[in-house]
Amino acid sequence: MGRLIAWCAALFLTLGALPGIAQAEDGYDLWLRYRPLPADAQARDRARATAVIFDADQHDVQVLAAVDEIERALDGMLGAKAPTYGQAVQAGGIVLGTSGEPRIKALNLPLGPLGTEGYVIRSTVMDGKPVTVVAANSGVGVLYGSFALIQHLQRGLGLEGLDIASAPKLKLRLLNHWDNLDRTVERGYAGQSIWDWWKLPDFKDPRYTDYARANASIGINGTVLNNVNAKADSLTAPYIAKAAALADVFRPYGIKVYLSARWSSPIEIGGLKTADPLDPQVAAWWKAKADEIYKAIPDFGGFLVKANSEGQPGPQDYKRNHAEGANMLAAAVRPHGGIIMWRAFVYQHENPEDRAKQAYDDFKPLDGQFADNVIVQVKNGAIDFQPREPFHPLFGAMPKTPLMMEFQITKEYLGMATHLVYLGPLYEEVLQADTFGHGKGSTVAKVIEGDLDKYKLTGMAGVANIGVDRDWSGSTFNQANWFVFGRMAWDPQASAKQVAGEWSELTFGPNPAVRPKVVDIMMTSRDAVVNYMTPLGLAHLMATSHHYGPGLWVKDLARPEWNPVYYHKADATGIGYDRTKTGSNAVAQYAPMLARQFGDVKTTPEQDLLWFHHVGWDYRMKSGKTLWEELAGKYSLGVREVADMHSAWSALAPYIDQDRFAKTNAFLSIQQREAQWWRDASLAYWSSVSGRQLPAGEAPPAKPLADYEAVSWPYEPGR
Amino acid sequence: MGRLIAWCAALFLTLGALPGIAQAEDGYDLWLRYRPLPADAQARDRARATAVIFDADQHDVQVLAAVDEIERALDGMLGAKAPTYGQAVQAGGIVLGTSGEPRIKALNLPLGPLGTEGYVIRSTVMDGKPVTVVAANSGVGVLYGSFALIQHLQRGLGLEGLDIASAPKLKLRLLNHWDNLDRTVERGYAGQSIWDWWKLPDFKDPRYTDYARANASIGINGTVLNNVNAKADSLTAPYIAKAAALADVFRPYGIKVYLSARWSSPIEIGGLKTADPLDPQVAAWWKAKADEIYKAIPDFGGFLVKANSEGQPGPQDYKRNHAEGANMLAAAVRPHGGIIMWRAFVYQHENPEDRAKQAYDDFKPLDGQFADNVIVQVKNGAIDFQPREPFHPLFGAMPKTPLMMEFQITKEYLGMATHLVYLGPLYEEVLQADTFGHGKGSTVAKVIEGDLDKYKLTGMAGVANIGVDRDWSGSTFNQANWFVFGRMAWDPQASAKQVAGEWSELTFGPNPAVRPKVVDIMMTSRDAVVNYMTPLGLAHLMATSHHYGPGLWVKDLARPEWNPVYYHKADATGIGYDRTKTGSNAVAQYAPMLARQFGDVKTTPEQDLLWFHHVGWDYRMKSGKTLWEELAGKYSLGVREVADMHSAWSALAPYIDQDRFAKTNAFLSIQQREAQWWRDASLAYWSSVSGRQLPAGEAPPAKPLADYEAVSWPYEPGR
User: Fold this and answer.
1) Phi, psi of B550 (to 5 degrees)
2) Beta bridge partners of B124
């Protein structure tokens, strides 16, 4: 028998995963993984899910989508199909309904303050029969509530004694796809764009529907289809028809379509000589274009615009400011209820000012000048989606202009697809940062929720990490970043750790042996990447252009801010960017209390130390170590943290299906090797610049600096 | 009740396919679609599939792969798992074994002439018990036999009274991937390359295993991983390690890995000053490189080389000929048993000679000069994978040099992913063409089988149509082209129609209501595309560069042979390329009997008329019509044929799962629209050139010629 087992093992090793499992657990289902619950849970839940009941006269496509989803979920989790529809209440039924229906109204649920998208889930009695009600003021609220109910079941929590009410705190909860029309994805690490423009509008890939389901399940209500570095072609008639086909697929899931608009489109596809926003012909062209789009897509959301940044055209080309540009477009979409999202990520190669200061310099003076259907979209930090940045100084500084948050979900600077980095702690850190805009407690979360400044528009955008890879996001754990973005767009006060736990249960099942370990890995991962890439406030030290791996030594690129040396300013005496009064004085862009704190090396949080200060190598840290010792130690800590993540994952082998286990395991091997590479290359470089030996106890880099400098990464993804 | 049905319909229309079906029938399973057989067939077959029996002492990875596959198939089709392994014979068992095993030897099966890859399947008696034996001289033969047995079951034919023997007629049955290291695929219309080089060798995507299974199931035994327009990087150590990881996955499936080699690699990655094949340093570099590769991949197949063609470097850069180049490489791989496949697809922009003649001119004089581990790879026609071309004149003209066939599976010139074109008839037409090389009956098939000229090496290569699209090939019907390529590489005498029928049964199930209709569609489709794109021997009229849609009018590109007008030579008096004595005399490259036939306009098959002759518009065709009337009629016929294909497919709706039905239906809508466009644009152009009105009864084009000329296709796939 031992021999037979050996043959089995040989077969297994040779051929990989068993067929059934391979097919089943390829990650396509994301967190909508409706696998059979344990037998006891099934028995319990079946009594509470005897039927899906809704007002069949409604014809509300979003309620129909909710019914379909609950059917699918019950079918998968309880192994028994509930009747698809039924108007008559029955015991143990799940009743879906909107506040306009008499039997919902009769329940007197607290729907009033929940707006058009909130929902109530309540265990109650209807017609004398015990039921679970999912109620809302609109179809999409019912849909959101249905997903919440399903997730409750998925997590093994059952349907007893429910009384849940939830409503989103932000109006715009959007993905930004940096997807090009040729299906490449700028900073995309999960394969080609899921939009198969070539075959649209004729062929609507079933994947588009699953995309919409996944987004609706976490409350995302809009998607910008094309790259902010936009082509005018996306505004031509054929591409409008393609976008309309997608909008048709998304509508039942409450997701609106938006487009990135290239500023110079009136010239490129409109035959005009100018794109000056004050030129009446230009305004007329945009108005006609908006009319054309709304004819094809009546619920079109509006335009996202990257203007006068990184070579993109914009109103400044005509000596107009951002507000003049945005307001012209805003007038074009206003008759249709559309909005303009105007990006504040601007810096000019020609501007010698500290890059971190330029967006504030450009936008702060325009506060109050934007039309009321414009919202300014601000990246979380003032540079560009680094592993850690202080929050962007515009937050709290634009009381008369609605600001929305732009997070990056795709990991441009954080190891692309294969490094495991959970972004929840990054988002949370930014959202919980205090701007002091209205005194203490004026967190970024509160700023974007709009209550502090009475914003009419509110929102959060996430640069998507979605592609045609079977698992959508390039790795299982990258799916968590999409998930947590959705959760925090719904509620900017959400806890990263709590969300990680929920994601773990939905993704790997509610096994109590799994959740805490997965959460530990996730919560460690962001500190780890900061430590092995850019500790103590360092930033933008990645290799040129693709941003993969270390490029600390790069100093010969044409523009100063393209070079890592611009950001770290290390020399024999010290390291860091002086943004105090003695330097660029970027600290002055923050509220006075913060400007003082960040302006003083002693009161600056050490995690941001080198962001704000140029500090001597022998500077004494709180730990008592010198900066050089502390810095070296952080890199080594990052490497150890990845090793710990890897062994924690290895210990989960008995609980995770083979395919997903093996993939994450392979990726952690890559990450472990590359964390070591980051540490070694960085320490080799700092050592050479500072002229210092490695601190005692630190292992020397595996290779000489020149070897690290010689590494090249041809054919890298995401460009 | 009617109302409830209406709601159901609304739900259905709104939300698309039902979840279960959508997941199940996305085309990923290809023809290895092990769905449950009808109950009666299951009951019958279960008695003949009680166990899978093999010699467990073997440890032959290919036999283990066969066991795994049969298990998977029985599990799917019979809904009952057979015991995975067992040495003891039992009634109704499926016995797998090689000729070295005593119990197989004792059966006296006719394995002798079947070589290392052939197999026998026989219903017989072993130890007094009825069994089905799958036997071969090697593990891979057992694997091929096992796939044949599985396909027999899939087609509902049961396992009664089997007596099958089969062996491949060609030694090399290879896919050529024109896949680049950045995952773009030249002429690929099914998404990115399936090779995720970035994550290799750490991460072996389970899809690689399924790729190997699919190929083994149709007898493919090798794969060239990278584009013939090669980068030297693929020969560097990191990429060799990546290729080795793939080779490890493919080995249990009998598939060897090959690489395209860039001629100038010794300069680009070797630090040499030259790539002259007679330079000893160059030869030494290649020898060392081959040694390095074989150390990582002991069963590495060898190199494929595109040299001195379309700008690629080659031995002619050093005044050496193709044989001198090939033989130098051949010496490098010979100690390891490797081979060189040297492509005959050569033409030089500098050569004013008829492009169709250049390969023959270059290679014919070298007959007999190639080393014995070199095989010359020749495209099926002398231009480039057109919808129809006469067979390449090199076939039959190189008695002392093994030639292998290169077919294109991807549809570069045939409508890319969305036009339904089954290539079986194209392959068959070429293979059954008579070269008269050894007198009548010397078909191309017989030439490449090698018996006529006693070739030591034989083979067929297919330019793959595989990508990361979920259905692998960009459409369901494109899968049939991969399938028929495998079948014809195994047996160049295979019938395109028979193969179409088998594919239909494996892909859509053995429903007798489906097979004949699907076969009709497939067998019509190749004529249809010839008719609506390039009837009567016309060729290469596609738009510039991407080859999508008509570009008949293009005449201003730098090199003559880049322009469609080079190929059709239409003017007021007539149309066609004079390749007779009065023209380029390309006909003289064929055997004398054919040279006479093709040299005379009256004896030239009308399907090749304008390939060989420049003919007046009023030339009288066999039908009695003028050429102009016949030509116009062919275009219209092509449009009607597509319409017929579309309605035939529509009639299959009740029998095909929703997702695959809808996708093909959407694609047929595209094809119908574009067949009309091809017809209209072509007739508008010919009319303008000839100065003739459309023949009576022919509907005028929908638009003026200028509109067709103005069409552009930005962001097209496959470049």
Assistant:
1) -75, 140
2) B131
Q: Are A203 and A152 in contact (CB under 8 A)?
A: no
pLDDT in tens, A465-509: 999 999 999 999 999 999 999 999 999 999 999 999 999 999 999
Which residues of A, range 71-130, sit inside 8 Å of B by Cβ?
72, 75, 84-85
Q: Are B146 and B117 in contact (CB under 8 A)?
A: no
H helices present in B469-608, as ranges? 476-490, 496-508, 515-533, 564-568, 592-599
Q: Tell me the sheet residues that pair with A390.
A: none
Q: Is A87 exposed, middle or buried (0-12, 13-18, 19+ CB in 10 A)?
A: exposed
Dist. CA A409–CA A417, nearest whole Å: 11
What sign has the CA pseudo-torsion A6, A9, A11, A14? Answer: negative
Hey, how many other C-beta atoms are within 10 angstroms of the C-beta on A561? Answer: 18
pLDDT for B10 equals 36
Give dist(CA A104, CA A58) in Å, integer.
13
Instruction: Give the Cβ contact number of residue A706 at 10 Å.
Output: 10
Distance CA B242, CA B341 (A): 22
User: How close, in Å, is residue A84 to chain B by CA atoms?
Assistant: 9
Beta strands A615-616 and A574-575, pairing class = antiparallel
- Between A83-92, A446-455, B431-440, the lowest mean confidence (pLDDT) is in A83-92
User: Which burial class, exposed, middle or buried, applies to A696 when counting CB atoms under 10 A from its CB (0-12, 13-18, 19+)?
Assistant: exposed
Give the pair of three-digit tokens for residue A161: 């004694």
Entry field: residues in chain A: 719
CB pairs below 8 Å between A and B: how many? 147
Distance (Å, rounded) from C-alpha A696 to C-alpha A109?
66
Helix extents (H) in B571-700: 592-599, 609-612, 627-650, 658-690
Q: State how far the Cα of B95 lies from the Cα of B88, in Å rounded to an integer.
A: 10
Separation between Cα atoms, residue B380 and residue B389, nearest integer Å:
8
Residue B203 to residue A666, Cβ atoms within 8 A: yes
Cβ atoms of B502 and B155 closer than 8 Å: yes
Assigned token pair, A241: 């028809």
Residue A138 CA to residue A129 CA, distance in Å, equals 24
**Which residue type, as a one-letter code, is found at position A124?**
T
A contacts of B183 (beta carbons < 8 Å)? 715, 717
**Shortest CB distance from B209 goes to which of A15, A207, A209?**
A15
Give per-residue pLDDT as tens, B468-496. Answer: 999 999 999 999 999 999 999 999 999 99
- In this predicted model, what pLDDT tens digit does every residue of A538-565 receive, in sequence order? 999 999 999 999 999 999 999 899 999 9
CB A306 within 8 A of CB A347: no
Which of B10, B206, B717 lies at the smallest CB-CB distance from A59? B10
For A28, name the nearest residue in chain B, comparing CA atoms only.
Answer: B23
Structure tokens at B709: 């000329």
| B561 DSSP assignment | G
* Lookup result for tokens 């105007």: A342
Q: Cβ of B252 under 8 Å from any chain A Cβ?
A: yes
Q: Residues 31-60, chain A: which have Cβ within 8 Å of B?
A: 56, 59
Give the span between the Cα atoms of A577 and A581, in whole angstroms: 12
For residues B567 and B588, give the distance between their C-alpha atoms in angstroms, rounded to a whole number.
19
Please indicate whether, in this complex, the C-beta atoms of A715 and B197 are within 8 angstroms of each other: yes
The letter for the amino acid at B142 is: V
The count of other CB atoms within 10 Å of the CB of residue A1 is 5
**CA quadruple A223, A229, A231, A232: dihedral, nearest 10:** 80
For B248-301, how does the pLDDT look when each residue is reduced to its tens digit (9 = 90+)? Answer: 999 999 999 999 999 999 999 999 999 999 999 999 999 999 999 999 999 999
Report the alpha-carbon distance of residue A62 to residue B442 in Å, rounded: 67
**Number of H helices and number of E strands within chain A?**
23, 15
Q: Is A202 helix (H, G, I), strand (E, B) or coil?
A: coil
